[in-house]
Design brief:
This protein is mainly alpha-helical and 225 residues long. It has one domain. It is 75% helix and 5% strand. β2 and β3 form a beta hairpin. α6 runs antiparallel to α7. The radius of gyration is 17 Å and the shape is globular. The model has no long low-confidence stretch (mean pLDDT 90).
Length: 225
């Protein structure tokens, strides 16, 4: 895949996805400074998710479409991981006055879809330039480094927070950092298969990613909590 032309990977789409990632970070920063509460998480999540579908259909972009399908399936299955973090290990806390699906805010599957799309797209860029192995390592490191900042912003914004009963970096437990690094590490290889196979296989790969998110959380908590 290194250097290979990929349908849907173009300068316009690259600018759009990177700009949307910057928008999410900026929105999180403002929400954190002003402690705006979970309503701002819902607004940015649903807005970005809807925009990505609009973009993929309007511009007939197969890459963004595949990433959306992949991320949506994984995001739905991530509800199991959230339940594990909230109810089983009693670590993650969400505000009580929210529309919930099981143990998670209703927006959470779509929030995961947005983040996986952004990270997955960056993984495609890295893979095309550096190859799958280097891309996986680089994205894993980047994911692990980015999470403490994002979790810190989410905490101050009132979106969610973690009980300080494990080793922490800022407002992020170390096990969450390890978990997110493992999740990011998996994306380049899974996205490569999703891009090169049928929609049905993209759905299956989304399921595999959702399962890997749970496994990553369990492994990370076992060794880093």
């Amino acid at each position: 895949m290194k250097g290979e032309l990929i349908a849907g990977l173009d300068k316009q789409t690259t600018r759009v996805i990177l700009a949307s990632a910057g928008l999410l970070l900026g929105w999180s920063f403002i929400s954190s400074i002003m402690a705006l509460g979970p309503v701002t998480a819902s607004i940015i999540t649903y807005s970005l998710y809807g925009f990505y579908w609009f973009y993929s259909i309007q511009y007939n972009n197969p890459l963004v479409m595949r990433l959306l399908i992949f991320g949506t399936v994984a995001g739905i299955l991530e509800l199991v991981t959230d339940h594990y973090l909230v109810e089983t290990i009693n670590s993650l806390v969400y505000p009580t006055k929210e529309l919930m699906i099981w143990s998670s805010p209703a927006y959470m599957p779509f929030a995961w879809s947005n983040v996986l799309l952004q990270l997955g797209f960056i993984g495609v860029l890295l893979t095309r330039r550096f190859g799958i192995l280097k891309a996986s390592i680089m994205l894993g490191i980047a994911g692990g480094m980015y999470i403490p900042l994002y979790e810190h912003l989410a905490n101050n914004a009132g979106w969610w927070w973690y009980k300080k009963n494990t080793l922490m970096v800022l407002n992020a437990p170390v096990y969450v950092i390890v978990c997110e690094a493992l999740i990011s590490l998996s994306l380049p290889i899974l996205i490569q298969y999703a891009e090169n196979h049928s929609i049905r296989k993209t759905l299956v790969l989304g399921v595999l990613e959702g399962v890997w998110i749970l496994i990553s959380a369990f492994l990370a908590f076992s060794v880093a909590a």
